[in-house]
Amino acid sequence: MSWSENMIQIADSKHFETLNGLWTGKKAPLVEAGVIRNTNFSPCGEIDYSNIAYLNVEVKQLSKRQLEVGDIILERSGGGPKQPVGRVVFFDREDGVFSFSNFTSAIRVKDKQKFDPRFVFYGLMELYQSGQTEDIQRRTTGIRNLDFTAYKERARFPKIPLPEQKKISHVLSTVQRAIEAQERIIQTTTELKKALMHKLFTEGLRNEPQKQSEIGPVPESWEVVDLGDVINLFAGYAFKSAEGASESNTQLLRMGNLYQNALDLDRSPIFYPDSFADTYRRFVLKEGDLVMSLTGTTGKEDYGFTVKIPDTVRNLLLNQRVTRIDVTDHRLHKDFAHHFLLSRKFLDYLYPTAKGMKQANLSTNAIKKLKVVLPGEAEQTEIALCFKSLDQKVAVVGRKVAALRDLFRTLLHELMTAKTRVHNVALNM
Fold first, then answer.
1. Would residue 107 count as lying in a domain?
2. What CATH number did the domain enclosing 56 receive?
3. What is the pTM of this model?
């Protein structure tokens, strides 16, 4: 930080206290507590309470480690190649009994008249986001561990007036709340789409009487046919990794690039010489192509992802274990087919066809034997438009979230390094 004021280290026991985490207790008496783990750390520094581990912990251990409002939880072990260890989250929950795992530590402000806990939290977040924890990581058996002694010496805070600290916290918290509000819109819209998919692929739009089919009730006028009657599955090619290029405009489209039904070309990218786009022209994907991943983990729904290729400046080569879905019958509209392949009405029949003990592999022959519904042409178009409008809303809000996150990162750096000061700014707090 570039403050001129006196700097106080986290190691200063007069101002800060650090606590080690705990895990399942062995000695009675025991009590149940929610234990916050690395998996509960969200990207924005909030705690994700959706999958908290509730464990029986020792009363004596918990008495020293029960979280208080304003505590900061630091990730000390974990991380990975693209995610250094050292993330932080802020605890602000007043209900329930919570502690933190032995892969983490808690940092507590002793004198809240000298330091605002959120100001300290944002300072630690800036320390992490600016890359200052990367060189104090230690690796053992594949796990990254933070050199906590070095961390406590490196994490320093200016002894500026408390009102200025609170102003900085207020500005950054306001942007964070805006991000969270937009993310809730995305979550609500996504849940709405799932519910709408179930309803429309079962009841349609015409309020028709229903009939029973191989995939459950559908409107009477709808046909139910084998996928193989209306589509063709074109398999990808087994490109050799040795032929890859460090930089080019031609990228291999792999299963990981289709994760969660979204195209992510930055996920472990592999490039090939641009000449491959001509040599392997049959495997170059076009805008609007549908592709599906065919391999994943048995017991997990991490395969069968379907993506519609958008307009992209890169040449995308279709890799093995990814198949292109070509609609061959005019009765089936591509956009309607795309959303049907994302629906539980289809996926609940798809996943049981996978073979393999640990690695689940989908067979294109088995996929072709699965059923697809065929409403009339106009109804297919209307149903596809319903889903398209929801997708567009998610995309628009997603861009807002991205812009707000960029703003937050910029403000975090500017405010926590004193490049921008707010001590003379009047804020409605």
1. yes
2. 3.90.220.20
3. 0.87
